[in-house]
Write a structure and sequence with these properties.
This protein has 332 residues and is of the alpha+beta class. The chain has 2 domains: 136 residues, Aminopeptidase; 158 residues, 3-Layer(aba) Sandwich (Aminopeptidase), CATH 3.40.630. Strands 1, 2, 3, 4, 5, 6, 7, 8, 9, 10, 11, 12 and 13 form a 13-stranded mixed beta sheet that branches. Helix 3 crosses helix 4 and helix 5 runs antiparallel to helix 7. The chain is globular. The chain starts with a strand and ends in a 17-residue tail after the last strand.
Length: 332
């Protein structure tokens, strides 16, 4: 590890950060090499992060200037509590630097996050340059969420024989869609994912599903069997970005009743969804899923989704706030 100087990263460092990030992105998947990969777009994205959030981070400096940075949003939510969130644009190191520099940046930045009371750390880790994933694995982070992209031209239809009928959502389906809202959450709540199903979150999600019938941008298809809805897909246009290709649509939510899994419902929905989005001239489809979810983590890769980033997480033992060698009281 070279003898770099570590100091807090600030708004004034944005031009240097943008240069490093642009360099990092050139190593990412070809699907992400879009018009957003310009220095001006990246600078505006970084400025927005500082202006809209409390950003706390560290930069590594040499005599030539900034050679690496890592920063996180200090946030609080009912679901995640108080936490530090390293966004996709929140870290980059100069090309040729090893995973050790990334580890050292985290070692410095994480001390600041703990001072803000953030003992849960999330990071959006790019997969193009292996140093990033390697570094976070060796920092005891676990992979929680997978973000993937499917090239429409490479999709291979399942063409399964099934007795389900696929149809479009209509205004009369509000209650039916609300009933489907618990499919994903209940599966995430079960073994082996074990995601907490907080009552307030469950109610909020149900309301959100019911309101989709009024969303003019959404494309929703339902799978029916014997007149009952047994599965669904919901798509939204995806704006191009640093983590999203041009001409992409997002498969935002999808689910199949547990009793119908393995009967071809999901495959039939995927085939129809692909057909509709192809007719709308989309070239890419994006989706994300829980790594520990046995169904989604096997099905979406079968559909052709390729990972471009992982959301990784580390939980720090909160007792370290007092159980440490800098606390003189406990050593008397």
């Amino acid at each position: 590890m070279k003898n770099y100087k570590f100091q807090p990263i600030t708004y004034s460092d944005i031009p240097a950060m943008a240069k490093l990030f642009q360099e990092r992105q050139r190593q990412e998947s070809s699907v992400l090499q879009n018009a957003c990969l310009s220095k001006s777009y990246i600078e505006e994205t970084l400025k927005a992060l500082f202006e809209k959030n409390r950003m706390v981070g560290i930069g590594a400096f040499s005599d030539e200037g900034l050679v690496g940075y890592m920063m996180a949003k200090v946030e609080f939510s009912v679901e995640m509590g108080r936490h530090a969130w390293v966004p996709y644009e929140g870290m980059a190191v100069k090309a040729g630097e090893s995973a050790e520099q990334i580890r050292h940046l985290y070692a410095e930045a994480s001390q600041l996050w703990l001072q803000y009371g953030c003992f849960k750390h999330f990071a959006m880790v790019p997969l193009g340059a292996p140093a990033y994933y390697d570094a976070f694995q060796r920092l005891c982070f676990a992979t929680e969420q997978v973000h993937g992209v499917m090239e429409m031209e490479s999709y291979a239809p399942f063409d399964v024989a099934t007795d389900v009928v696929i149809r479009d959502l209509n205004k009369n389906d509000r209650a039916k869609l609300g009933e489907m809202s618990s499919i994903i959450f209940s599966y995430q709540n079960a073994s082996p994912t074990y995601a907490a199903a907080l009552p307030e979150s469950v109610m909020q999600i149900q309301e959100g599903y019911e309101n989709i019938v009024n969303d003019e941008e959404a494309t929703v298809i339902l799978a029916e069997k014997n007149g009952e809805v047994v599965g669904f897909h919901a798509y939204w246009p995806q704006d191009p970005g640093l983590m999203a290709p041009d001409k992409a649509v997002e498969l935002s939510v999808a689910g199949t009743l547990a009793s119908e899994m393995g009967t071809g419902v999901g495959k039939a929905l995927m085939d129809e969804g692909y057909k509709i989005m192809k007719e709308k001239s989309y070239q890419f489809m994006v989706a994300d899923w829980r790594m520990a979810n046995l169904a989604s983590s096997t099905f979406w890769p079968k559909c052709g989704f390729q990972p471009i980033a992982y959301r990784m997480v580390r939980n720090i033992d909160e007792r370290v706030a007092w159980a440490n060698f800098e606390n003189p009281l406990i050593w008397k």
